[in-house]
Design a protein that fits this description.
With 226 residues, the protein is an alpha/beta fold. It has 9 helices and 6 strands; from the N terminus they run E-H-H-H-H-H-E-H-E-H-E-H-E-E-H. A 6-stranded parallel β-sheet has the order 3-2-1-4-5-6, with helices on both faces.
Length: 226
């Protein structure tokens, strides 16, 4: 594995804990288990648009899907207020417990840290600022400025161009195997955060690094650089 200079983080689920979104659904009278299905559906539709040469912001797709998925008859408030309540939940998420020590260790190791999210840079900024980690990041990139979602190859190229760095000198860090697969096929080094202890799908390109939490990543990258 080639030594890297820049660490590129996915944001939603990789850095942020989406579990509280289930409470947001329950708050409005919807089943909490709809939250992961809704999030997966947003990713599905964003990727479908990219494949067909189109692009829409994460928030726009998320709102549209909530209007179609929420049952007005079961809600405890008007559907537009319910949609707003769920969407506002993204601005109040926290990072996973392993994220702060992991980010600080990577920063202390002298690596450049950036994000590349399928969501907005505003969500990433609020998440990292609240966690006291914003200053560790050089820049917060979003696919909204690239007009195509990950895992399209062009999304990763966009990150490399913005950082003025070769793809081979960047490592993509994510919990999503599809993101790892896309980055690997674009020419990046990849690190899969396997917090759940599951198996990596065999149909995707395997990650270069697998760790159970972000706190272990600095040591793995430091070893690769020596």
């Amino acid at each position: 594995m080639k030594a890297v200079s820049t660490v590129v983080f996915d944001v939603n689920e990789t850095l942020s804990d989406l579990q509280p979104l289930q409470t947001r659904f329950s708050d409005v009278g919807a089943p909490g288990h709809l939250a992961p299905l809704w999030f997966a559906s947003v990713l599905r539709d964003g990727l479908a648009l990219t494949v067909t040469g189109q692009s829409q912001p994460f928030a726009d797709i998320g709102k549209a899907l909530l209007f179609s998925m929420l049952d007005p008859g079961s809600l405890n408030r008007p559907v537009d207020e319910a949609v707003q309540h769920v969407m506002e939940g993204f601005m109040s998420l926290s990072v996973h417990p392993d994220v702060p020590p992991g980010i600080r260790a990577l920063d202390e190791a002298g690596l450049r840290l950036v994000t590349l999210s399928n969501g907005s840079s505003g969500v990433a900024d609020r998440l990292l600022t609240t966690a006291g980690l914003r200053e560790a990041f050089e820049t917060l990139l979003t696919v909204e400025d690239a007009d195509l979602w990950k895992p399209a190859r062009g999304a990763y190229r966009f990150a490399a161009e913005q950082c003025d760095t070769d793809l081979a000198e960047m490592v993509l860090v994510a919990v999503h195997p599809w993101d790892i697969h896309g980055a690997a096929n674009a020419g990046m080094v990849t690190a899969w955060i396997n917090r759940g202890g599951g198996s990596y799908p065999e149909h995707f390109t395997a990650p270069d690094i697998e760790v159970s939490g972000l706190h272990d990543l600095a040591d793995r990258l430091r070893t690769a650089r020596e």
